[in-house]
Every structure is written in structure tokens, then in C-alpha cells.
Amino acid sequence: MKKILLVDDHSIVRQGLRNLIELESDLEVTGEAASGIEAIKLVRSNTYDVVVMDISMPDKNGVDTLHDLKHVNADLPVLILSGYAEEQYALNLMRNGCKGYLSKDAEPEEIISAIRAIANGKRYISSELAELMTNELSHPTEKQLHETLSDREFQVFFKLAGGLSATEIADELCISVKTVSTYRTRILEKMSLKTNADLTYYAIKNGLIT
Description:
Layout: E1 2-7, H1 11-21, E2 27-33, H2 36-45, E3 50-53, H3 62-72, E4 78-82, H4 86-95, E5 100-103, H5 108-119, H6 127-138, H7 151-161, H8 166-173, H9 177-191, H10 196-205
Parallel strand pairs: 1-2, 1-3, 3-4, 4-5
């Protein structure tokens, strides 16, 4: 029996996933978290085979939570089940440790197939994500600007675009303000942008934040 942790700030979404998963004889929901911080606490104290997690959460977004989960348990596979389409986040998150990415609009059968594959040590690549990855290999110069960022750069970019100050980011990531400034400079250079407002505009335009 594979043990599943559900992480989503909407209780109705968690309940729907629980109802779906518990129809399967080989899968069991043994934990639920309404936030990234709660998820990390549960992973520290319990054993799970898969984490199924949303990107958008109030206290700690899925990007940060994925990064922190990898430090708590590097071998714990994570499936991102998000309201955002694959092209907005999937490639960055797959590079940075998640084992699969699906839209919440995916069919129930595909969600179960993805959970089962990841629980058994495989990656799950949807047809949409496979096409994105193929296009990236065929046309690497057409990569979106945020896809050129490293794991940590993407984290900092996401927070800058969301309006956080360097001090707030430093506190959240437990790094110095100087280090945040260094990341900011590197991000702006890579993305050919000049200000934090440019980052915010880019993120909104590309559907990364609302």
C-alpha cells in the first residue's frame, strides 16, 4: 500500500482527491496539509511514498515547498497537481526535483496513473509536457526567460515578482540580504530586465502570478 500526502489549501480539493485515491486498492491517503509549512512538518515526522501538491498556497508557495521538501527528504517523490498549465511551471519544476506535473483539469484516470507511476519510482510525463520537452530539445533558443533560471534563482524571482523586499526574501530563505541582491542582479541579467516592476509584469504576463 502506497502512502500519499495531499497538500492543498482548499479542503474541497483535498477531499475530492482523497475520494478518488481511496477507490484504488494499492493507494492510501495517510496525511493532509493545508499549507507548505504544515506539509514540511508532516514529512519530518511521517513516512510517505508520494506527495501530491498544489503550486499556489498562502504561506509558502509550491516552488518554495518543493525546494524545502528536497532538503528534508531528497528521495521523496512529488507530483505537482496545479491549476496552472504545464507551460507556465512544469519545465522549471521538473528540473528542480518534482517527478511529475499535471493540471487539475486532468482526467481522474490520468491523476491516478501519475500517482501510481511516481510511487513506483518513475517520472510521469503528460502528453502536454512531453510536447513541451520535445519542443525545448528541438528549439532550445525559444526557451522562456524564466526557464533559464536555476532552482534558487527561480525561487528568488518568484518572490521578487510577488512584491517581497530583499529583507523579507532573506528572512524566508535564511540567506543574507547581500546574497538576495546578488541573485536579483543575476536574474535581471539573465532575463534582460531592469527593475522589480519588470519582473512582476513579466510574471503576470506569463501567468506565473495573478
